[in-house]
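C-alpha cells for chain A. Residues wanted.
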C-alpha cells in the first residue's frame, strides 16, 4: 500500500466503482422502500409484463434483496476477490464491457426461459384470467398471496422481477477460470485447494441441475448460467483473435 492511500483507493477503478454503485443502490432501495418500489421500476420484469421496460436489462444488475444482506455481500465479495485480478489483466475498458455484457446476456437468457415457460402455461388460462393476472397479480403477491396451479406460476413469471449482479458475477468467475485454469482456490469448509477450472465447472453443473430440477425457489438459476454462457462466448472470441491468453499469467499453467 502506498503511503497516504487507503486500501480501497488502491483498488482498480471499475471493480471499486461497481462495488460502490451496488451498495449505494442497495441502500437506496432500503431508504425508499416504503415510498418508492425500486425493484418494481428497475428490476428485470418478463418482457410481456406491464411493468417491463428495456432499461431494466441494465438496471436490474445493480439491485439486490434488501431483506437478505447475504445476497449483496457474496456478490460483491466475489467481484472483489476475482475482479481485481481480471481488471488488471484485461484492462478497465474490456473488463467493464465484459461485466456489463455478461449481465445483459444473463438477462436475455432469463427472459428466453421465462417466455418458454409462459408459452407452455397460457394454453390452460383463459384470456380474461390472463388479463387479471397481468393487472392484479403483483398486488396479490404484495399481500403475501397467490393463485394455485398454473395461474400462480404465471403470476410469478409475469410479476416477480429478477434482481442482482449474480449473472455478471458468474461471468467473472468463468473468466477467472478461463484465464487462470490451474490457479488453486480454497472453498469455505473444504481444507484442500481446488483448481479454478474445476471449481467453476462444478458451480456451473450445480446451477444447471438446480435450474432443471427446481422451480419457485426464488433463485434465477438460468440468469447465472446466462452470465457464464455469454462470458464464455466472449472469451473464446477474444482468445481466437489473440486478444487474451489462457494459463500463462502468474506462473500458473
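Reply:
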Amino acid at each position: 500500500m502506498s503511503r497516504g492511500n487507503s486500501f480501497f483507493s488502491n483498488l482498480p477503478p471499475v471493480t471499486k466503482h461497481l462495488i460502490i454503485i451496488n451498495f449505494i443502490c442497495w441502500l437506496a432501495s432500503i431508504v425508499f422502500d416504503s415510498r418508492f418500489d425500486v425493484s418494481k421500476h428497475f428490476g428485470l420484469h418478463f418482457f410481456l409484463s406491464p411493468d417491463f421496460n428495456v432499461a431494466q436489462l441494465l438496471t436490474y444488475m445493480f439491485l439486490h434483496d434488501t431483506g437478505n444482506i447475504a445476497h449483496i455481500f457474496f456478490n460483491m465479495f466475489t467481484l472483489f476477490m476475482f475482479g481485481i485480478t481480471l481488471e488488471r489483466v484485461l484492462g478497465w475498458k474490456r473488463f467493464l464491457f465484459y461485466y456489463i455484457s455478461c449481465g445483459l446476456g444473463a438477462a436475455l437468457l432469463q427472459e428466453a426461459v421465462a417466455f418458454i415457460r409462459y408459452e407452455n402455461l397460457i394454453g390452460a388460462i383463459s384470456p380474461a384470467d390472463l388479463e387479471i393476472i397481468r393487472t392484479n397479480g403483483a398486488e396479490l403477491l404484495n399481500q403475501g398471496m397467490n393463485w394455485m396451479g398454473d395461474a400462480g406460476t404465471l403470476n410469478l413469471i409475469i410479476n416477480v422481477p429478477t434482481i442482482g449482479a449474480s449473472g455478471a458475477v458468474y461471468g467473472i468467475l468463468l473468466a477467472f477460470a478461463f484465464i487462470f485454469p490451474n490457479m488453486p482456490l480454497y472453498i469455505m469448509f473444504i481444507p484442500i485447494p481446488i483448481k479454478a477450472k474445476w471449481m467453476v465447472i462444478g458451480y456451473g453443473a450445480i446451477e444447471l441441475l438446480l435450474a432443471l430440477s427446481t422451480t419457485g425457489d426464488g433463485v434465477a438459476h438460468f440468469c447465472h448460467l446466462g452470465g457464464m454462457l455469454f462470458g464464455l462466448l466472449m472469451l473464446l472470441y477474444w482468445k481466437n483473435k489473440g486478444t487474451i491468453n489462457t494459463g500463462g499469467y502468474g506462473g500458473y499453467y
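The chain has one domain: 11-241. Confidence is low (pLDDT under 50) at residues 249-253.
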